[in-house]
Amino acid sequence: MSKLPASAKCVVIGAGIVGNGMVYHLAKLGWKDIVQIDKGPLPNPGGSTGHASNFIFPVDHSKEMTAITAESMRQYKEWGTFTETGGIEVARTQERMQELARRITSAKSWGIDGGRILTPAEVKELVPYIDETVIVGGYYQPTVGVVDSLRTGTLMREYAVETGAAQSFANIEVLDITVENGRVTGVVTDQGTIAADYVVIATGCWSPKLAAMAGAHIPLTPAVHQMKDIGPVPFFKDTKGDIEWPIVRDMDVFMYERQHGTGLEIGSYAHRPILYTPEDLPSNATAALSPTEFAFTQADFDIQDEHAYELMPSIVGDENVREKYAINGILSYTPDGMPILGETPEVKGLWSVAAVWIKEGPGTSKSVAEWMVLGDSEIDLHASNIARFHDHQKAQFHIKSRVDESFNKTYGIVHPLEQYASNRNVRLSPFYEAEKELGAVFYETAGWERPFWYESNKGLLAKFGDKVMPRTAEWESRWWSPIINAEHLQMRESAGIVDLSAFAIFDVTGPSALSVVQKAALRQMDVAIGRVVYTPVLGPNGGFKSDLTIMRLDTNHFRVVTGGAHGMADKKWFSDLLPADGSAQISDLTSSYTTIGVWGPKAREIIQAITDADMGKDAFKFSTCKVIEVGPLRVLASRISYVGDLGWEFYIPIEQGAKLWQMIWESGKKHEMIPVGIGVYGTTGRLEKCYRAYGPELETEYTVIEAGMQSPKLKEADFIGKQAHVKHRSEAPVSLLCTLFVDDHTSANGEKRYMMGNEPILTVDKQPIVDAHGRRSYVTSAGSAPSLGKHILMSYLPTELAVAGNTFIVEYLGEHYPCSVAQVGATPVFDPTNERIIA
Amino acid sequence: MDVLVCLKRVPLAGGTLILTPDARDIETKHLGFGISPHEENAVEAGVQLVEQMGGTLTLLTLGPSDAEEQLRSQLAIGATRAVLIETDGQEWDPQGTAAALVDAINAEETKFDLIIFGAESADSAGYQIHIRVAHALNRPIVTNVKSMKVENNLVTCERVVPTGREHYEAPLPAIVTVRDGLNIPRYPSVPGRMQARKKIVDMKKAEPRIPKLEKVTLALAPSKDKGAEILGKGADAVPALVEVLKQIGAF
Amino acid sequence: MILVLIDHDGGEIDPLSLRALTAARKLGHDVEAVVIGQSGAELAAIAGEYGASILHVASHASISDYTPMASGRALKDLVEKLNPAAVLAAGSPRGNEQLAHLAAFLDIPMAAECSQITLGAPHHVLRARWAGNLIESANVHSELLIATVLSFSTEPESINGPAASVSQFEPNVQPADTIVRVLSRSTGESKGGVTLNDAKVIVSGGRGVGGPDGFGNLEELATLLGGTVGCSRVVTSSGWRPHAEQVGQTGTKVAPDLYIAAGISGAMQHIAGMKNSKTIVVINTDPEAPILRYADYAIIGDLHQVIPALTSAIRQAKG
Description:
The complex is a heterotrimer of chains A (about 850), B (about 250) and C (about 325). Chain A has about 850 residues and is of the alpha+beta class. Helices cover about 25% and strands about 30% of the residues of chain A. Among the domains of chain A are: about 5-190 and about 220-335, D-Amino Acid Oxidase, subunit A, domain 2 (D-Amino Acid Oxidase, Chain A, domain 2, 2-Layer Sandwich), CATH 3.30.9.10; about 595-670, Probable tRNA modification gtpase trme, domain 1 (Gyrase A, domain 2), CATH 3.30.1360.120. In chain A, about 60% of the residues are buried. Chain B has about 250 residues and is an alpha/beta fold. Chain B has a single domain (about 1-220), classed as 3-Layer(aba) Sandwich (Rossmann fold), CATH 3.40.50. In chain B, the strands form 2 sheets. A 9-stranded mixed sheet of chain B has the order 9-8-7-10-6-1-4-5-11, sandwiched between helices. In chain B, strands 2-3 form a two-stranded antiparallel sheet. Chain C has 8 helices and 17 strands. The mean pLDDT of chain C is about 90. The chains are: A alpha+beta (about 850), B alpha/beta (about 250), C alpha/beta (about 325). The interface of A and C includes residues 41, 170, 171 and 285 of A.
């Protein structure tokens, strides 16, 4: 074995599908001087890649996951390591049939075609060894396939080595990752130290241990996925090669069965969650099979045996078909189910590519390599960004409790608004007790308990009657209440008080503060003190990285306010812009300040009653902020609105929050002010105003022009993405973000149905709509517009189709509903001239 | 005929063992458990005998309550029922173990025609429990059996020795210990697993005795890397090897 | 006095017994030996050469070949007569078995496979466990120590002593003691008469051989070197080779002059059966295979190329 080099541009730790993908894609993008190391032998160093089941279902409700999977499949095909087998998800319940229909619609939204619903008899035709009497139907996806992940990884590694870009070393144990001044400097191994500018952790379930060496966090947990291989199966006697028969997922029992040569592999996500820590994983030498193949615990699989028997009695029930191999295989699970990608917020130059499964490996590697080399990836990875984690989410308790809860949802029917039950009540606002008394129904964001609606407002249902757009179908009534719409209507009549404690707040200060925020913001930040600017934040490619508000509090003092969910990623984005000379700083005030919003036509009267400050239309203009005195309190009031009504956000030190709440509450009583939940703030209020949200509408893939958010005048100062943005401004947009109304909600059985988001928008003859960049039209956000009595859908439509009044079809749970364009661009459908806001 | 097979739950270790901090046991937190290799042949032999001749196959083990897992696995390949003498998880010495097994066997209603052990346990290899049980039960015992036939109330056995094979026989009831190679043990089927869940595992208690062969500590055997001289790669290295073989007088 | 059981087949000594004799002698006590069966009397010279002063010969009309329980009975009788401090035997299947019968008769402990013995109260031993991968430090609580000596822990050392004086005795053998005995014998399975146990050269193949057909090359090389073919456990459990050829804890433990391991990665249980070989040559594609730690020489490469090349090179060298 040749000696480890003393230095490298980049050290990639790990030689599983991800580590190999990283060296390959970094090499392809022109990096040289890459050193790859793994503590195990090659080609199978003993991580999860070595025991993976290797099949790929290309469909997921997550657009990001689907895109990464599609890119991975493309690469596997390119390497010749993909075998298309087709796959069937079978349903044992009607509820699952609805979910399968939903999966097909998600697939269509993300550009995965060919899926169709099968009758039990049709399933049997494709998979003759199934007992069709135990199922009620299935979903056939012909593009499902099996890959050879070890072979692919080897080919990728060999490419990088043969082209001279990388050297690869097996059996090297990492002892430490060194860091100086917050930047990674190298890797200490049992066979020498390698100085490095970049270190990539691609070590799967060992990642937390490696990250900890550098003082960083990769919050995942190794968890067991059980599988057993039985055979030889007489029915498969004459099959050639690895696989010929479609893969079957028995969704309602959280299992899969796939033919594997003459055997049948039975896998499960139904067993009790069995979680480990990276320290529990044995070394290659001490492991009985491999470090990630633990001994099979049959007692956890007893019920799965019976379920497999039910579905495939002719094979599983055959006494002569015997267990050939059974393991508790270790996989990586994260607390929110998404991978952990990107540069760690703690250490510059230290990158995580973790919690990546076989179906995502090559695509993820390509995207992260683009991110490293080019500054951004083609596929938007925001949901996987390692910077998303709040500090408390790095706690073992959080990781374990969330994975424990979500493990059995791997094949579960997960409602888009479904809340975690575990590890709740971690971050409580100062108003929490008051809200609880008002019957708040709490949803969680970034650990914060936020009222989604208040049961105390139930009385409003009678007042507003059918204007609350009641729902009868269980699916879209789940995690929803008509009270949300009642709160909305009442707010529009009088006023509502909103708990906004979950905002992430950080101040940028110092002589270079302006240049930092200018660099990040699309909008002009060199504004008068006291101005509040809502601005998109762009990536190098001119796509969206965030949208947030920035208050200029002083010449060298800016306050950035952003959503809780994305707050930590924003904080890293801004932190990365700080000059090396220390002339600007960032301080995180999220846990120092709480925020209360008050909006509605009565908002001014309510606030004016408790302050001597002039809250008048001209004295306190929209888009400005100032400190006002409210009784004993000094409060930063910011006049903006995300719900489309007159009002303010009030920023107050957290210990004084309850006092402010109480004063506003008292003052609001005579104006019929009500507490309003996030259901209004995040959905109904916003959608009526056609406000875009980061994530659903705003993402890397779309431009400011397409989102209809360009300002008339281009900011002169430089900002990230400017070059791309200037180009976008000069081109005709390929698509435009539109607001659509559903014209008829009636389903085949006469029930009114309400879309939830992510549904495909189809032409009137039910064909998918694809724009010139190959992007599908789908519902980015959906929700009630109670003031208009409409259900709103937002969708990007190809420019030529984006014409008000144009009609389309929205597919929802397998059925088709007519809809039409109400508005092209960002002009609100409710109060288009914003009279209510600037009142 | 009624057959009893005695088993021991042992860790399934990899290439290298690690010890617990008190050096009294091997660290098993990341290891699975199974039974000793020769015992797999013992169960297979028992299953085959019952398949051929009818009767019952009972399993007996002494160990922690977790040993039920190993019993269930073996019930899944065709044993009738099982008895688990539950210990405190500590390792018992051979005399104590043998005495507890004998008590349990005597307490059984079934008078077993044949009791089968594996030739040695994977972990402790004391080479005596089976013989102590034979003495206590007054039964003939044939050890290290590689081939076995039961007919006419007689067990006929072959044992492989350096010079060939030795032939033994013993009248039933008898005890044999068997070695790997006797048969090819089958693995459980799913229906076997499902049936095993319903089979009876009798849990028994036995009082530990003061060990006379008293384990003090364990240590890893020194296995120093001999530092192999790499003669080269592929067929190109053959001349170097021929030189080495000449030097050591291999030809 | 320490009594050592010498095992033999029809007067041909088990060489492992000489190791047991040597180990006993090193404990600093007088050493006497015992053989079971009249034909054992022929071993007086060699027993003496390795330090035994007296060779007790147990003979009885009903002992004509190996009869383990009767051996135990004979040992019990002798122990009661001579009251030795310890009874030792080789840590072989037979040594272990016969001493286990003795221990069962006396209902006292026995320590098998000891690499070190210290007499005392209690006695202390180091004994091999886990196929020799673990060493147990144990106390033996009994007046008489019954122990077997780990096969390769002691090299046999002759002291060129005079022939042991032979002391004949007839054990009080009971009918039950002789029920189990060798009734007949047949010769080994290995071709050419060279068995694993006495082969000077073993060419062993593992998973890397790929299948039963691949062993042809190994056989050719083994024959050329006057040796025999061995294999790892995966080979026999896959049915590629007969179990008699398995080297390892569950097969045969060997210590030839030359052991060539081709395509064997080196599982613990295989290592246990071959690590005492004088010279170990490894042929493996994986330079990190565990077996390399035990090798003296290695070629990194595909055995399917290396072995035929080696065979023809040796043929040439032999002329």
